[in-house]
Amino acid sequence: xxxxxxxxxxxxxxxxxxxxxxxxxxxxxxxxxxxxxxxxxxxxxxxxxxxxxxxxxxxxxxxxxxxxxxxxxxxxxxxxxxxxxxxxxxxxxxxxxxxxxxxxxxxxxxxxxxxxxxxxxxxxxxxxxxxxxxxxxxxxxxxxxxxxxxxxxxxxxxxxxxxxxxxxxxxxxxxxxxxxxxxxxxxxxxxxxxxxxxxxxxxxxxxxxxxxxxxxxxxxxxxxxxxxxxxxxxxxxxxxxxxxxxxxxxxxxxxxxxx
Length: 259
Fold this sequence. Notes:
By secondary structure, this protein is an alpha/beta fold. It contains nine helices and seven strands; from the N terminus they run αααββαβαβαβαβαβα.
């Protein structure tokens, strides 16, 4: 099939899948509202472990509502402290990682102000960072170190932005200082989205450049069935490496896991 015919076939497929996508979109909104109800009215009465279980169950259910199947390779760390280091493709990454293993994320401060999503992220224990502020980055590294010393499992996206998933962007090393300071292990993690039928990369969930959250969500809902693949690597320690050297090695490992 030539490229023009392929694009036409893809557009026709998305058009035919639109009614199902609208039905799923309604279910997504109801699920998000149910999550908001849980965090506002039930979380204050729950302990930390119960909250983590609720977050993981909510994320798993959201993937089901979206029609996305989860596939986990490797073994996620069982107990903290640990810092998960992952590539970044989509807004879905946080949902996928939560569904495979509960963790606390470090996210840009703008997310805190997103309608509905901001409240859910804050309730899940997200640490927010002003990316343009060096002082705030130092504050977050300090908070991360304290959190790791308490035995938490944190997750960061050291690319600093989303990519298309076809290759892993260079890693920034700043947030790795938290693991160095707390003498905490790090687990490399690779994410990718593939079609359920052929197992080839799917770009539908991408959230890159001028993409909007609504546009990415609609592409995901109207795409052919997708599998979210999470590949956990081996747990490792700094072993004398500084954060930059460690970041470079982790980049190579995440790239291999993502292949």
